[in-house]
Each structure stands twice: as C-alpha cells, then as structure tokens.
Design brief:
Blueprint: E1 33-34, H1 46-55, H2 68-78, E2 85-88, H3 90-102, E3 108-113, H4 118-125, E4 129-134, H5 142-148, E5 153-159, H6 171-180, E6 186-190, H7 194-197, H8 204-210, E7 214-219, E8 232-235, H9 238-246, H10 255-266, H11 268-291, E9 303-306, H12 312-321, E10 324-325, E11 327-329, E12 333-337, H13 341-357
Parallel strand pairs: 1-10, 3-4, 3-5, 5-6, 6-7
Antiparallel strand pairs: 2-8, 7-8, 9-12, 11-12
Helix pairs in contact: 1-10, 2-10, 3-4, 3-9, 5-6, 11-13
The structure holds pyridoxal-5'-phosphate.
C-alpha cells in the first residue's frame, strides 16, 4: 500500500470554512417558525406554481442558456436594453461571475461590514483582498468607503437595504460615493431587498442610467418567493455585462427557475400585495420590539436587526427552544426575518420574555 498522499489545495482554503446551514429548531408542540433566512413566508403564487409544473415536462432538455424570454421581460419592466442584463443562479451566483470577471490577486474588493456573508467569501475566491469598512450607526459608511478606494480597488459593494441591519443609505451619500469613485472601478448596488424599501432610498436602475460603472443586483429569492429555485440578475453597462457572460457556467439557470421567474413577473401586482403584507408585519414587529425596550434600527427589508452584542447567543437559544429559527450574527446581534403573523407572534412572545429576564 502506498503512503497517503498530501493533497495539494489552494493555500487560500486555509482561511475558508465550508458553508454550514444552521440546524432548524422544533418547539415542544412540533412547530417551527423559519425566520432565519429572509425567505418569503408565502409559497409561490398559484400562477407561478402552474408555470413550474408545466416546465417540468421539459426537464430532459438543457435550459435556454441566454434566458431570452426572462431577460426581455426584465428589460421591458426596468426599461433597460436586454444586453445590459445577465441572469444567473441567484444574485449570489451572478455576483460570483461578476467578481470572477473583475477581481484577481493583487486587487481589492471594498464592502461595508457587517453585511452579506457572501461578500468576503466571493472576494477571496477570486484571489483579491477583501477590505471590510465598518458600518456607522448600523449603516454603510459611504464617505469612509470612498476614502478607502484606491488604485487597486476593482469593486465596491453597497448592500442597500443592508443585510443584516435593514438600513438604507441616503440618496445624497450614494451620489457622493459615485462622484468620488474612479470610473474604472465598479460600484455594485446589491438590491436584494429593494421591493421592501419602496421609495425610501435610491433606485439603482436610475443610477445605472447615469453612471456607467454602476452594477445593480436583484433577485427573485425574496419578494418573489423563489429562493428554492435560484434565480437573480444583474443590470450593468454593456461591456461589464459582456465580461460577466464570459465567466458564467453554461446553463447556469435551470429551465424551471426561468419559467417561474417569468411567471412571477407577470403577476407583479400580486407579488406587490404580498410585499405589502410583509412590510405591514415588519412595522408591527418593530413597534412591538421598541415598546418592549429593544433598540432596533428602522428596517427597510423583510427582517429586523437586534443589536444584542454578547447577549446574542442566549437570545438565539431561547428562540430555538420555542421552535423559532433566527439568524445569529456572531456577537454583534440577531437578525429575525418577517414571517406570517402567527410566526411573528411566536417570536415576539420569546422577545418579550427575554426582555423580562435581562
Ligand atoms: C438574500 C440575498 C441575496 C440573494 O441571494 P440569491 O442568491 O439571489 O438567493 C443577495 N444579496 C443579499 C444581501 C441577500 O441578503
């Protein structure tokens, strides 16, 4: 028998850990409230489920690599040329292709922190240096970020509204950032929660028309209730979109995902109505938390941020005992997604009790 061989892997992997989804807690009564992943609490709309069922019949065929029907529907909706749009396997998938196309060893990716966990991971995969810039008042500190941008910076990531804090940046601060970042450096506006923010912040698509280095990321995972199908897209100037197409996996977006997203766009009015329900619940939960004495920033997403610091672990275990899954963000805080009214009430019951215990 030969001696075991030492595998040669990228040294970068020493800094990485495999993604581990958290365990799903179950209450004594058998219930689970899934408030950990910012999903829609509502199943896909009937018309969307019908499109999914119909698309199943063609699953023996590879999907349309160019996502032609979906791309043209998005283009018409946003009033941008179809060649400015790249559809991918979730907006995280399309962001991976973008970073692969733009960043490399010796360059930097600048982002606010805390924010979406995928940013440092995707930046490191490319070999670039991940440069986190701390939030200020739970909000992206755009002046500090623009001061950090240098000749090595290829990409600046702005999560608006920000996951996990729910805050938005002001239109003025964003305009200042865009005026200060050199035109050869991309500014990515991750608008995964755009629909929940209404007109409370800038619309990335308008900025895309004014600044050729703006890239907008949107997803069908949140407002459109299709997290399980993995479909999202970016909007960028034609040269950027063309570059991203070179780093995309062939057939990245499945046929069923394309059909579902297209059907969801066709019932946008219904999607908007469900977003309205989530927003009303978010505001109700936020008021209840404040009345109970929690200091929560105003959220513009489908989730709320509780900056509990070292108390985060204990709070998360108390939620788990009640079958309420929430997302712990280290020792910074806890993010709770908005669910159905019943799920939100189960969460609030734990939050009230925990407040009494403190
Ligand atoms: C959920 C989320 C996404 C969307 O990811 P998908 O890959 O489209 O499911 C992107 N960015 C942020 C900040 C998110 O929270």
């Amino acid at each position: 028998m030969s001696a075991p061989t030492q595998l040669r892997l990228r040294s970068l992997l020493d800094q990485l850990t495999a993604y581990r989804p958290p365990a799903v807690p179950v209450a004594a009564d058998g219930s689970t409230s899934r408030l950990a992943a910012n999903e829609s609490p509502y199943p896909p709309l009937p018309a969307v489920q019908a499109a999914i069922a119909e698309a199943a019949a063609n699953a023996n065929r590879y999907p349309d690599h160019d996502c032609v029907a979906l791309t043209s529907a998005i283009a018409a909706r946003l009033n941008v040329p179809p060649d400015h749009i790249v559809v991918g396997a979730g907006s995280a998938g399309v962001l991976q292709s973008l970073i692969t196309a733009v960043a490399e060893p010796g360059t930097e990716v600048v982002y606010g922190w805390r924010s979406f966990d995928a940013y440092p991971v995707l930046a490191r995969w490319s070999g670039a240096v991940a440069v986190p810039v701390p939030l200020r008042d739970a909000t992206f500190d755009l002046p500090a970020m623009s001061a950090r941008v240098g000749s090595l910076t290829r990409l600046v990531l702005v999560c608006n509204p920000n996951n996990p804090t729910g805050t938005v940046v002001s239109r003025g601060a964003l305009a200042n950032l865009l005026d200060r970042v050199p035109p050869d450096c991309l500014v990515v506006l991750d608008e995964a929660y755009h629909e929940f923010a209404g007109d409370q912040t800038a619309d990335g698509i308008e900025l895309h028309h004014r600044y050729p280095n703006v890239v907008v990321l949107r997803t069908f995972s949140k407002a459109h209730a299709l997290a399980g199908l993995r479909v999202g897209y970016l909007v960028a100037g034609e040269p950027v979109a063309a570059a991203v197409r070179k780093t995309q996996l062939p057939f990245a977006v499945g046929h069923i995902a394309q059909a579902a997203a297209l059907a969801a766009l066709r019932v946008q009015g219904e999607v908007d109505r469900l977003v309205g329900l989530v927003v009303a619940e978010r505001d109700r939960v936020e008021r209840a938390l404040r009345r109970a004495g929690y200091d929560v920033p105003g959220s513009h997403g489908n989730f709320i941020w509780l900056p509990l610091g070292p108390g985060s672990a204990r709070f998360v275990s108390a939620c788990a005992e009640a079958g309420v899954a929430v997302h712990r963000v280290g020792d910074d805080g806890v993010r709770v997604s908005i669910g159905t009214p019943l799920e939100n009430d189960r969460f609030l019951a734990v939050a009230h009790y925990q407040r009494g215990e403190q």
